[in-house]
Amino acid sequence: MSITAMPPCQAACPIRTDVRGYVYAISKGDVSEAIRIIREVNPFPSVCGRICTRACESACRRGQIDEPIAIASLKRFASDETMEQKDIFKTGPYYTEKIAIVGGGPSGLTAAHDLALLGYNVVVYEAHDELGGMMTRGVPEYRLPKNVVMNDIERILSLGVEARTNTALGKDITVDELMKEYQAVFIALGSEKSLFPKCRGIELPGVITAVEFLKQVSRGQRPYLGQKVVIIGGGHTAIDAARTCIRLGSPDVTVLYRRTINEMPAGRIEVEEAESEGVKFRYLSAPLEFIGRGRIEKIRCTEMRFVADESRRRRLVPVEDSEFEVMADAVILAIGYNPRTDDIKDIEKISGKRGTIVVKDDTGTTNLKGVFAGGDVVSGPMSVIDAIASGKRAAIAIHRYLRSLPPKENEEPTVLKPLDEKIIPLIEKRPQQKMAQLPVEERIKNFDEVNLGFTWEQAISEAQRCLNCGAGAEISDECVSCLNCVRVCPYNVPVASEYKPKIDISQCQACGICASECPALAIDIKLDTKEQSIIKLQNAINSAKNISGNNSEIEFYCQYKKIGKPGTETSKETSIGKPCIARIDISQFIKPFEEGCKKVKILACKDNDCHFKECNKWLNKHVNEAKRILKESGLDPEQLTVVYE
Amino acid sequence: MVIAEIKSLADINEMIKSFRKIFIVGCGECVSVCLTGGQKQVELLSSALRISGRNDKEKRILKGKTISRQCEPKFLEQINKDIEESDAVLSMACGAGVQTLSEKFRKIPVFPAMDTKFIGVSDEAGNFIEMCSACGDCILSLTGGICPVTRCPKGLLNGPCGGSKNGKCEANPETPCAWLLIYEKMKELNKLEELKNINNPKDWSKNMRPGKVNAGI
């Protein structure tokens, strides 16, 4: 087992966010550190905190015990709580080269962000009058408020990125022109051209594409919807359009989808939320014809069913004689999107199927020298995090191209394996925190954000559920093979091997008992290293002595029981929070007395198994041993006290 | 392995009371494994000595290091400089380690911080139990692998005696009767018949002190 194996959440994230790192920071109440970690790789935390597809949560090993960590909600918390922090690291420019980014969506803006940080001059060209792409034009405000997207975008622009809006490729500028002025071009046009079903009557007034509909609504326009609206499609955009109609006051909104809920690209939660707001769903139904005199009036539809073909793959076919009609005052089409590249003449050489741009590899390099492409224009419609990832890869590729560096090699990380079945029952169950929502009757009246975000208590409690995968025990060469770790581990993770004991980092719960019991001080816990502990303690001792001289007092408290918003009691300089009090070794209790402190107080929790197993058993052992040493050294053992709360 | 125990702080303080610069040397072998003389204990002893000397006019200067095997003079080369800078050495090793240090660094007083107890093993419940008396004439082949010389407080070669009660020894009710353990083990081995043989007195001349073994190097 590689000791450097990556937690599955991080490995699942297309931009390899250090999820464990920022979740741990939140668990200590340190949102500034959390957002610093997030922003290291992601310029859109407010966006991803709300609409990310959350591959990390599907991979989270806590899911083996109860439910995964609500990672995206924690990211949103870190971003919401630091919205006012404007400590932007402004860099360069270090290089003279100029780079043009075509497309101001998540992919283009991420590339702009990373290239600006690398020290390049970057100009973003955007066809619309506003940056953000689908983040501002496509996703409705009740799911992603425009002001939070703009907050992320403003940070990017503040790095010195220049934006030229209302400038469309193929109309106002060409790639050839750009290549004369710039040394590299990144094309990230997105994929906004709607697909139409092959039905008659598609041209009737009242039939509108979801992209156009959502764009108009985001600009304050109110397209005519009448009494009955039918949305055709089953993706996020279809649901977004349906819920938007509800908010605009439509009394009768139906989503027509040709497959079943199981095949729906939109998540089950989104469907449930839409249903609770009054949206009706009709599955296994497809339109055949749009009918109306001068305006849409009804849709002729057919029922669909799955049949297994020769290769035993399921195929969708219409059910014979199952036609039916649905009345509609308006129809919104959301069946799919292609990139809109047909009128851009000078990218013909690199264009592929369905309007996409062809790239050589995932760095976005194209057959045109100096021209790179990424995001939905290459892949077709994907999630925002995929677009961000593509922008990041392109930024690196452009930098390496301009600096004549060899291409970066792709490194596939070693990933921590799943939790052993033997360990799962030993881990305390703790349900996931549920985020508060606006009540249905209130939210259908306006576009206010539905999900209200975590409170401080919720965020810390949720972050504390994290198993800190892979941040556990490491054994150094100082090991004397006493096998005490094998004897003391509450989870039976260390094993005696032929020579030295071995600790499988993928199973270690990072409780720290083995480290505190190791006679050779050969075990360290990555989550809370000895070095960090010594520095923290010394700082606390210095503060205590500065504040109260010879009467100074040091306090240790359990991070899992007592932690709060910065500025509250636990954040005082003489208090030391520990991810479980049982891991504190005797020397930490003794050290303050060595330095002349008067008292050491330990705030422990009453439960023996609050977060890790048997914590009070080990705490008592350490305290008794420390008291014995104090007594032998001529101090009153009562100067060390434990308070159970 | 050799099992040792730390002396009381009062005893240690008494030994080093006239010295200021003290170097504590731990051992990474037996005493680390029996949890009494490794780097953790070096640091704790150093803290305890600093606290107990807090009212001294001249402050104690304490330094510590753990050597991978203190009874090996070649490993001791690495602390030459530390020894030069110290007034006294406190050894956290068994008696063999203390004497190797003392022999190697002849100009500085070397004090034992430990009492060496016996050769033993862990009972897996936090205790270390004596198993071998290093008698020089091993009879474990006759007694099912259980040593009566060490584990019977009377050292009986033919037992049990009349003081075996409910499987425990009359000398200490917590100590299991070694001869009962031998009986049960021999039964498991199907060798009960052999217990009818009378064991002759041991050849104690093989236990001549100091012991010496020529390994032929």
Topology diagram in text:
The complex is a heterodimer of chains A (645) and B (217).
Chain A: H1 8-12, H2 19-27, H3 31-41, H4 45-51, H5 55-59, H6 71-81, E1 98-102, H7 106-118, E2 121-125, H8 134-137, H9 146-157, E3 162-164, H10 175-181, E4 184-187, E5 193-194, E6 207-209, H11 210-218, E7 228-232, H12 236-247, E8 252-256, H13 268-276, E9 280-282, E10 285-291, E11 298-308, E12 314-318, E13 324-327, E14 330-333, E15 337-338, E16 371-373, H14 376-379, H15 384-402, H16 440-443, H17 456-463, E17 473-475, H18 484-488, E18 495-496, E19 501-502, H19 513-517, E20 523-525, H20 530-548, E21 553-558, E22 575-578, H21 586-594, E23 599-604, H22 615-632, E24 640-644
Parallel strand pairs in A: 1-2, 1-4, 2-3, 4-16, 6-14, 7-8, 7-14, 8-9, 21-22, 21-23, 23-24
Antiparallel strand pairs in A: 5-15, 10-11, 11-12, 11-13, 17-20, 18-19
Helix pairs in contact in A: 2-3, 2-6, 2-17, 3-6, 4-6, 6-17, 7-15, 11-12, 21-22
Chain B: E1 2-6, H1 9-16, E2 21-27, H2 30-33, H3 39-52, E3 61-67, H4 73-76, H5 80-84, E4 88-92, H6 95-104, E5 110-112, E6 114-122, E7 128-132, H7 148-151, E8 164-165, E9 168-169, H8 178-188
Parallel strand pairs in B: 2-3, 2-4, 4-5
Antiparallel strand pairs in B: 1-6, 6-7, 8-9
Description of the molecule:
The complex is a heterodimer of chains A (645) and B (217). By secondary structure, chain A is α/β, with parallel strands linked by helices. In chain A, 32% of the residues lie in helices and 16% in strands. Chain A contains 22 helices and 24 strands. In chain A, helix 12 links the parallel strand 7 (228-232) and strand 8 (252-256). In chain A, helix 2 crosses helix 6 (71-81) and helix 11 (210-218) crosses helix 12. The model of chain A has no long low-confidence stretch (mean pLDDT 91). Chain B has 217 residues and is an alpha/beta fold. Helices cover 28% and strands 21% of the residues of chain B. In chain B, the strands form 3 sheets. Chain B has a 4-stranded parallel sheet with strand order 3-2-4-5, with helices on both faces. Chain B has a 3-stranded antiparallel sheet with strand order 1-6-7. The A-B interface holds A 478, 480-482, 484, 487, 518-521, 585-587, 590-591, 593-594, 596, 629-630, 632-635 and B 8-10, 28-29, 32-36, 38-41, 43-44, 47-52, 54, 66, 122, 124.
